[in-house]
Amino acid sequence: MGFFSYFSAEELVRIHEATLTTMETTGLVFTYEPARNLLARAGCKIDGQRVFFPKKLVEEQIRKAPSQFTLYARNPEKNVVVGGDHIAFIPCYGAPFVNDMDKGRRPGTLLDYNNFVKLAHAVPYLDITGGMMTEPNDIPISHRNAERLYSSMVLSDKPFMGAGTGPEDAIEAMEMASIVFGSREEMAKKPPFVSILCSLTPLGFDDKMCGAIMEYAKAGMPQLISSLTIAGATGPVTMEGTLIVQNAEILAGITLTQLVREGAPVIFAGSSSASAMRYGTLSIGAPEMAVNTAATAQMGRFYNLPVRGGGALTDSKTVDSQAAYESMMSMMMATLSGIHFVLHSAGILEGYITASYEKFMIDSEICGMCKRIKRGEEITAEKLALDVIREVGSGGEYLTHMHTFKHFRQELYAPVLEERDNYSNWHKKGSLTMEQRANAKYKELLEKYTEPSMDPEMRKELDHYIKSVRNA
Amino acid sequence: MGFFSYFSAEELVRIHEATLTTMETTGLVFTYEPARNLLARAGCKIDGQRVFFPKKLVEEQIRKAPSQFTLYARNPEKNVVVGGDHIAFIPCYGAPFVNDMDKGRRPGTLLDYNNFVKLAHAVPYLDITGGMMTEPNDIPISHRNAERLYSSMVLSDKPFMGAGTGPEDAIEAMEMASIVFGSREEMAKKPPFVSILCSLTPLGFDDKMCGAIMEYAKAGMPQLISSLTIAGATGPVTMEGTLIVQNAEILAGITLTQLVREGAPVIFAGSSSASAMRYGTLSIGAPEMAVNTAATAQMGRFYNLPVRGGGALTDSKTVDSQAAYESMMSMMMATLSGIHFVLHSAGILEGYITASYEKFMIDSEICGMCKRIKRGEEITAEKLALDVIREVGSGGEYLTHMHTFKHFRQELYAPVLEERDNYSNWHKKGSLTMEQRANAKYKELLEKYTEPSMDPEMRKELDHYIKSVRNA
Lengths: 472, 472
Known about the structure:
Two copies of one chain form a homodimer. By secondary structure, chain A is an alpha/beta fold.
């Protein structure tokens, strides 16, 4: 399968050169002293907190990061390759609120968080369970990191996302994961989770993010170096200008990781979009978001790095047509442009503010459809079916042909929630909307959920850990 | 801007060769004797109604069709180029039913038809008004063709779609258009409309379609040669097999047009999809529809012909999340894979059965977003904005910068219906869904609609024509 390209090869080079110029002459602010010291030793000029990156250093360092890596799940059948021809779908991340048809919009709780882990575990099209689908607002902030990780490891055997909240939480994540996945050295070889760390746009990194970036890099644990530049707010309003700011931030972060530990796995992670000028809000449902996704995929390929972009993104406040088509726009763009890691593939609503149960299920269907498209075809004589075409001829039918029976399960995507029946049957079944079917489906999945088994010794140790946190 | 490719170049050649083999050895049924006679004279073998196409003949003839052409609107500012780097969006076609929130689902009427012409005229992202957005069921069948054409020419000054119903209607369409657009010779040079003619899948053409194809070709009027093969029903269940059946039908039709008149403009038109095996229905919301769109775009490029595919297609029975994301899937695929002519870009619901007023408006927004993406960028120093990035530096903002003010209108798509405000403002405004806003918007557009002026002599003659039809 080919890739959609938004920019030409020459245009990419131009954006790359402009990025390096910005890194060298405008520089980026690093408030974290250990990062500045390391960058200075590598040859960066420093002025106060501002770091100027020599072009050669950046080009040298980013080449050291691997072009793909594997996340090792508790269940080896669920290992996930990040990079190459693969695409991985990961649910929503960081939403303070949750929403469903029955109870409406409210702050997320640990119960909601656990429900989303269970749903992400149950949906075959989601590859990684996520790490912060919603914020568990009902428990003390100091417990949240441990509780999230505990649930991720116990309630699912898929890879998961680690702490993206600072160096202490990063260390705790590795400590807890170590109970299940072995020593730091073993995890560096077979990492079970990936974390997302973000720049402070424009052109900066704060202490917490920088500290965590360095901790993860030191441990050889995979991480997204992510930029969300908002065209017209935290970046130039032009696509090119915003791309340069995004690029400079990601490359600066990746350069830092490789100086900490050569070969530390990273994901080139762009999630820039546009501001809604009329309201002064961020718009993640804008076509400019899809444009940035395509451009980010191209830049990632240019640097030979795994790349993050897209998602089931929307500005809509409710699960409606806008939410659905904006989500599909960015999911299709991610699929067709060669993105490897699609965070926010399920559930997100209101520009990252809310995790919706119904949208989680609807987006899961979108993930399934995108995976069908991404799969592509392998042409064989059997699939060309010239003999079958000759046999059926003009005016015949294929429905009852053995060839159809033999191949339809492989060839045709089988929808979970979609209505494909005729109007009168649909009407007889109660004229249900997709949203209503999604509401029923998430409840069904939670009801049918069974916890994957875990080694009792590991489980005991994990339980012991979480109890000590709860009693602290 | 590049194109998304589903198949590799070698795979395309393989499908092309398999298509020619099918045309040569399996052949296609043409029930229309004049077509068979013409094809026989060109060297086709004939067996009863079955026509076997020599490979060389097909390759020779399809090369004669132009790679792009222009539709000349009554208002020259609304001319539409079909082919090249352009994409044209055309509304729904052929729906027997209409639907809106207020009155529900019912058979379409002439009033509905006229309303859709007015809406297609008003929406800037729709390039051609369409020709049969809904069937005017409330008037005699014998009047419908004339009434549709009359409305298309009077209520809008955009290009429109002609008769796709048979040779008599095709002749009437040219006769009526001639009142406004000049003689047959003038219209051959500057065609004002395009028509859609379809194969009888699998591997056939009936009298009506064949007759119209030959009439239009003779007149040099542009036409879509269209195939809707249903994988697993009227074509093999494999994507490759269905593509071969589709390809054979389109190439047979195009060969016929070029034998009638060398250089007659045609559109390579694929709209094949999958059957929903569980229900025995056609599914146009399936991911296989998007796959076929990408493959069709590639085949069209391979033959250097303008190509039709995609649309705001859905199997949903109601305007919900399913309708929205299925529509965006096929619209994005059409946009990114290089389709030129996108029929059904607005309003279609229930797999071609119903034209929805609300969906018409929602899909129009999708068209606007796809056009924004398709536009691409032209990189300049001003757009790279390195000076602006340097000036703002780290931690600054771009919202109040002159560069943002200067460029935002060009750079950022301005949505018509989308909600991008924050949650509390949205709530204060009445918590409206996209569907509710679309309902209000279509009424607003109809209320604000003003008829474009027309030369009084032409109008008089057109009125005279339609009156004679009504009194017949």
